[in-house]
Amino acid sequence: MRSFFFDRMTTAVLALALVVPFSAARAETDCESLDIALDSAAGLSKRSCDTGSFTGGGPSHTAEGIVASDGMSFFVIRHAVAGVRTYFTRLDTRALIDQGETFAKVEDWTAAPGGNGFAVARFKGRMTGTSDLPLACFGFSRFSGHVASTTGFRHLLYGFYCTALDDQVSDADVRRLIDAIKFSFE
């Protein structure tokens, strides 16, 4: 059973790069150097972080991310900053999750408690390239730094959390994990 969940976790971490397609490779970096952080209250012991700068073929932006996990759960947090003369148009959380290739199927999408400006929703996620067993997940997004005279934003903070331990992520766990996301921009 442990091998099954380890394989799913490995697939999730590899699929992270496809949450929202970027035009260049990201470089692994020290988590302390990011503008985002995951507080220890999240309770996930393994962490890896990456950064990248992207131009050409579309709007320029920089991006950074955290992937945190334990044996049965993983948390993916991405932060993108719009480049010069660019901005992000607000999308709902479902659209951001659907843009990636992490999940082969998303079902049972329902609102969940947010806080701190985050839009949050629970869902069952069936990961691409794995068995058809659903994971209990929630997705989140937060747009900030409105760009004057536009409908866009400078910052996009988004991601998802999934676990194989529960049938649904509880309200208390959603609140605890959203509260564990820290950022130093704005």
Concise account of the structure shown:
The chain has 186 residues and is α+β, with helices and mostly antiparallel strands. The chain contains 3 helices and 11 strands. The chain is globular.
Number of strands: 11
Oligomer: single chain
Beta-strand percentage range: 35-45%
Number of helices: 3
Topology as H/E string?
Answer: HEEEEEEHEEEEHE
Cα separation of the termini: 44 Å
Main sheet, how many strands, which sense, barrel?
9 strands, antiparallel
Estimated structural class: alpha+beta
pLDDT averaged over residues: 84
Low-confidence stretches: 1-25
Total domains: 1
Percentage of residues in helical conformation: 10-25%
Radius of gyration from the CA trace? 16 Å
Shape designation: globular
Give an overview in words.
- This protein has helices at residues 2-15, 93-99, 171-179; strands at residues 27-29, 36-38, 46-54, 61-69, 73-82, 88-89, 103-111, 119-127, 135-146, 152-163, 181-183.
- The protein has 186 residues and is of the alpha+beta class.
- The chain has one domain (2-183).
- Strands 1, 3, 4, 5, 6, 7, 8, 9 and 10 form a nine-stranded antiparallel beta sheet that branches.
- Strand 4 and strand 5 form a beta hairpin.
- The termini are far apart.
- The model is unreliable at 1-25 (pLDDT under 50).
